[in-house]
Amino acid sequence: MIILHVDMDAFFASVEQRDHPEWRGKPVIVGSGPNERGVVSTCSYEARKFGVHSAMPSRTAFAKCPEGIFVKPRMGVYKEVSDKVFEVLERFSPEVQKVSIDEAFLDITGTVHLFGGMQKLGEKLRADVFSETGLTCSVGIAPNKLLSKIGSEQKKPNGFYIMPFEKKEIQEWLESKKAGIIWGVGKKTAEILSAKGFRTCGDIQRADLRFLIKLLGEAAAKSIYAHSFGIDNTRVSAEDAEEKSVSREYTFSEDENNREETRKILIELVSEVGRKFREEPRRAKTIKIKMRDNEFNTITRQIRAPLPACDDMTFRHLALKLFDEEWKEGQVKFLRLIGFGVSDFTSLNDKEEPSLFPSELALQMEKREKLSSVLDKLPRLLNNENSVS
After folding, report:
1. How far apart are CA 279 and CA 276, in angstroms?
2. Cα separation values, 379 from 93, 274, 312, 385, Å
3. What pLDDT, on a 0 to 100 scale, did the predictor assign at position 351?
4. Between 312-326 and 360-388, two packed helices, what is the crossing angle to 10 degrees?
5. Taking a C-beta distance cutoff of 8 angstroms, is the pair 135, 82 a contact?
6. What is the sign, positive or negative, of the torsion defined by CA atoms of 330, 331, 336, 342?
7. How many CA atoms within 13 Å lie on the side-chain side of 88?
8. Looking at CB atoms within 10 Å, which of 15, 61, 340, 341 has the fewest?
9. In whole angstroms, what is the distance from residue 338 CA to residue 320 CA?
10. pLDDT in tens, the chain (389 residues)
11. Upstream peptide bond of 157 is cis (omega within 30 degrees of 0)
12. Shortest CA distance to 323 belongs to which of 304, 334, 339?
């Protein structure tokens, strides 16, 4: 296989600099305002030199970079630019996996010869993206997704890197790199590994797999061990481009310690997610909430629905069940963020039990779905009435 990974450089901030030439070369920070509760969505490379990074509280970003230009996100504009980028990518391969609004994998195994080889294909892709959007991207080409992702990070921004393709060369290339370069080794896992002397990919390559399993668990240990050698058998799949979750979050203007007020906000988020979710004919199997306290400790809790659901009543019942288990009456908490989401989708036509003999629960959920559908239509009906009158 020949896999290409493309990653737009500081995407949101680059769009803002493109549309505001006077901001080019200056630290642009996209997200909440400098005096607001909230976080940085992304920032330009000029801002990163001050230590600003995504997910950082905006107030902290302002303290690090007081001369930063703080900009509210324009998601509609970013989506339009992203669509243009993906139009370009689809010219180079029919197999494009959209990872996010600004990142994708392409399987170019069957098309690379049409462009005269990997070097020419990569250079043309980057040139075409720039010519049609005015933005730069970084590209990595490798024998698998893991290595192509690593490759695209080697010469950011506006970089292009072809990784080794031979087994021995891949192993040697990775040997001296920090363990955090590979998938599966996040901050906490890196700390656990480092405490036992595993700081580089080479350290993991030389490890006793049985010891790693005791340290990390079988699934994680086997995955990280394989990745330390550059082994990754996952394939590029256009299906992965589909929306995998629908969620909403609310950041409080001040630390919130009123349990009932927070509960009300959660119910509002459930309604927002429900309306958005029902725009497509589908149901969700997993319901989850997210809570972040005033010390930036974040927890997520999730629960499986008894049957795949798309109605607000089921979503609300399960969300509040999770919330009440996490924040019991009488407990003191100070939250800065609450979130709700649904995932693990299934088609509206998929049935988990024979429709000839629906259970009482299935009949009840069917009524709930119809009610939610009617409520979704009410605002439009009222607007039409008002326009007629």
Report:
1. 6
2. 43, 15, 16, 10
3. 46
4. 110
5. no
6. negative
7. 27
8. 341
9. 12
10. 999 999 999 999 999 999 999 999 999 999 888 888 778 889 999 999 999 998 788 899 999 999 999 999 888 899 899 999 999 999 999 999 988 889 999 999 999 999 999 999 999 999 999 999 999 999 999 999 999 999 999 999 999 999 999 999 999 999 999 999 998 888 888 899 999 999 999 999 999 999 999 998 888 899 999 999 999 998 988 754 455 788 888 887 777 889 999 999 999 999 889 888 887 888 889 999 999 887 777 889 999 988 888 888 999 999 999 999 999 988 888 898 899 999 888 865 544 444 444 456 566 666 666 666 656 655 544 455 544 44
11. yes
12. 339
Could you tell me the pTM of the whole model?
0.68
Active site residue 87: no
Closest to 211 (Cα-Cα) out of 219, 221, 202: 221
Listed in sequence order, the residues at least 6 apart from 282 whose beta carbon sits closer than 8 Å to its beta carbon are 310, 345, 346, 347, 348
3-state secondary structure (DSSP) of residue 247 = strand
Q: Which amino acid is at 87?
A: E
Backbone angles phi, psi at 133, to 5 degrees: -125, -15
Q: Which residue has the tokens 């920070």?
A: 29
Q: How far apart are CA 184 and CA 48, in angstroms?
A: 25
Q: Which are the contacts of 375, defined by CB distance < 8 A and separation ≥ 6?
A: 312
The label of the residue with tokens 């197999």 reads 95
Which residue, 275, 282, 272, is CA-closest to 339?
272
pLDDT on residue 358: 47
Cα–Cα nearest to 2, from 123, 172, 121, 132: 121
CA 258 to mean position of chain CA atoms: 30
Q: Alpha-carbon distance 24 to 3, whole Å?
A: 32
Q: Which of 16, 46, 95, 103 is catalytic?
A: 103
SS3 assignment, position 273: helix
Coil, helix or strand for 105?
Answer: strand
Which helix (H) or strand (E) element contains residue 306?
Answer: strand 298-309
List the beta bridge partners of residue 342: 246, 287
Report d(CA 307, CA 356) in Å as an integer: 16
Q: Which domains does the chain have, with CATH numbers?
A: 3-9+78-162 (3.30.70.270), 11-75 (3.40.1170.60), 167-228 (1.10.150.20), 243-379 (3.30.1490.100)
